Amino acid sequence: MHLHILGICGTFMGGLALLAREAGYTVSGSDQGIYPPMSAMLAEQAVDLREGYHAEHLEGPPAPDQVIVGNALSRGNPAVEHALDKGMSYTSGPQWLGEHLLQGRWVLAVAGTHGKTTTASLLAWILEYAGLEPGFLVGGVPANFGRSARLGGGPFFVIEADEYDSAFFDKRSKFVHFRPRTLVINNIEFDHADIFPDLAAIQRQFHHLVRTVPGQGLIIANQDQASVAETLDQGCWTPVLGLGTGVDSDWRYRVNDSGDLLLRGPDGAEHCARLPLPGLHNAANCAAALLAARHAGVPLATGLAALEGFRGVKRRLELRGEAGGVRVYDDFAHHPTAIRATLEAMRPGPGRLLAVLEPRSNTMRMGLHRDQLRTALAPADAVFALQGTGLDWRVADALHGMEPAATVADSVEGLVQEIREKARAGDRVVVMSNGAFGGIHTRLLAALAPQEVSS
């Protein structure tokens, strides 16, 4: 069977293409921007990539048996219009995945506003360490696997369960198609303001997800957050295991002075493991992954041992390099809660902490989080931000009053120059964006490198 994927270079759709090829399907695809690393991964799997959304891409030869439409495409797109006019069979990526690759498998889904990629990657690694050969599809590249998706050899499949909509013709969240037996709800906050009017609308979608979990399954839920409790209070037919920092949590986690994860169960016993990633938010991610793996039959002791070998995920506090004594990290944080959690995790350590932010997400572009930015960035010793195109609000105004004063530039080149002039040996620079940020990491490392003096 021949599938043609529209929007194939997106993280989810690219992962879907890899899974479909592994399952024996012929796969081709179109996208507006075809570039590494996704293009290289797809080419290695003999996926026929075509630039742009031209109608002729769907005409063959041979014409595809089914078109899978990415959620970035809408009516008016030439490929979409051609598929509709010709009466071609089409579906969304999440629906195709649920119907063709997840049926009959034990799906472990990780949902929430923050921490999905890290938690799902941790969970897949714990299952792998336990010898269970899980399949997975995550929104990043776990270093332990070197790829974002694989079918796996056992019954278990780990998926990052995104609340974004499925397609222009299916405005339900992607995760309603996955039918998990094990569900992790990390947290629920307001985001994706381009499709959700308020937090209640997001909670409604999460409740649709809760409705799909069988009575013999398990929901691992953040017990610290009222929005999660409110969602479950709308109706829940599945056992819930609470996870939090409070003394009354079913399972309580904390981080000791040595940076170790301490996890206490209902029996009062406390379990300890070295955190593979810093910060209380990563302690929560690890704890959720451990409990989800435990539901799949992995003893807690095995899961704790697996954490020692977890090598992280690209773009999640990833060290990109060091130049001139300055370390440059890359992180996907783009919501105020995630920005602050990232900086607090990096706060302990030598030298100054410099935060570099690109306000790029749809919600950030709309300015709905601008009033929270000063608090989110407060743990940093210095703040640098980009006044990018598409913002109808001034970043400098949102950051006004910070001490020391935040530096705002209207170009990546200008931002690199500002950081180069103010950074000094021993500093740690954390770059935060949900996009490529104009390749700022490489440009910054080049600018910070000692310049050779010609004789």
From TrEMBL:
Pfam families: Mur_ligase, Mur_ligase_C, Mur_ligase_M. It catalyses: UDP-N-acetyl-alpha-D-muramate + L-alanyl-gamma-D-glutamyl-meso-2,6-diaminopimelate + ATP = UDP-N-acetyl-alpha-D-muramoyl-L-alanyl-gamma-D-glutamyl-meso-2,6-diaminopimelate + ADP + phosphate + H(+). Residues 110-293 form the Mur ligase central domain. Residues 315-435 form the Mur ligase C-terminal domain. Gene3D superfamilies: Mur ligase, C-terminal domain, Mur-like, catalytic domain, NAD(P)-binding Rossmann-like Domain. Residues 2-102 form the Mur ligase N-terminal catalytic domain. The keyword Ligase applies. Its cofactor is Mg(2+). Its EC number is 6.3.2.45. ATP binds at residues 112-118. Reutilizes the intact tripeptide L-alanyl-gamma-D-glutamyl-meso-diaminopimelate by linking it to UDP-N-acetylmuramate. This is UDP-N-acetylmuramate--L-alanyl-gamma-D-glutamyl-meso-2,6-diaminoheptandioate ligase. The gene is mpl.
